[in-house]
């Protein structure tokens, strides 16, 4: 059985940041990812980040990804790609399939799970037709593979993912026929929604999709207005001519591995559903298993990177690579950054939700 001090599952923004912090302390780190390329969501994000300089404001996600990969290479961090982790246990053993044909067992003194999140689907008549896809899938097609998923697009969901991907679809040459939102108010940051609206895209609040129309593929979409109780209003149906329907209807933490390991969970709807409880060091209820990024509650890439840093610092310190004083200093710095990211109207809701999961973690883990 292979053995390593720290194994990081997931080579996205959280996982790479965790690996970098642990490696800086002197720990040998192995990063495992099922994809053929590292970097995760960052390499789909061609827009510039905003916030403060410390949070990479003004830098495009794809460039942040390149910076992380370069730092990973400089620090000599080992990265296994095309490697699917099938299970972990409370003794921190990892079972994986490498290159789709070789089974590997690994023991890690500490494990950091940064497996991200999965897109939510919405069921409606015709939802299995070709042309119905997650907004993240559309973003992968245009920004990673340079393939336009369709020419006329309906976006379902007005959160940040919906409006950002809508704008990127337009940059790629598609027409966004409209963005519908079941809630009475738009969900994304004003800086994103205003940009899309200025480009001429109509928003339909208090609307939902009732069916995708087409024989072999999507040819149109029917949308309907909703009343105050979120029920369709008869007679308000509209048919929009589209060939693609993108679903930006939220994300759910991809937490199966920590379920398998026996970690305790709590249901926090604001964080995407069932999330593993953890403490202020990002350690789960199972000793030596840490979490970071969207698996701990769906937020932004900037937050995922800070949580990754926190998990990396904590895991390395737990193995003696940092002194107590150095760990406290670095942990305090990261929490200052996290609190700054979670301020404001939308961030406060996340902060409140995170405080709840931390309080639950403190109670149940202790």
Automatic annotation (TrEMBL):
Q: Which Pfam families match?
A: Pyr_redox_2 (PF07992)
Q: Which SUPFAM superfamilies match?
A: FAD/NAD(P)-binding domain
- Is Oxidoreductase among this UniProt entry's keywords? yes
Lineage: superkingdom: Bacteria
Q: Which GO terms describe its molecular function?
A: oxidoreductase activity
Q: Does the keyword Oxidoreductase apply?
A: yes
**Which keywords has UniProt assigned to this entry?**
Oxidoreductase
Give start and end of each FAD/NAD(P)-binding domain: 6-308
Q: What is this protein called?
A: Thioredoxin reductase
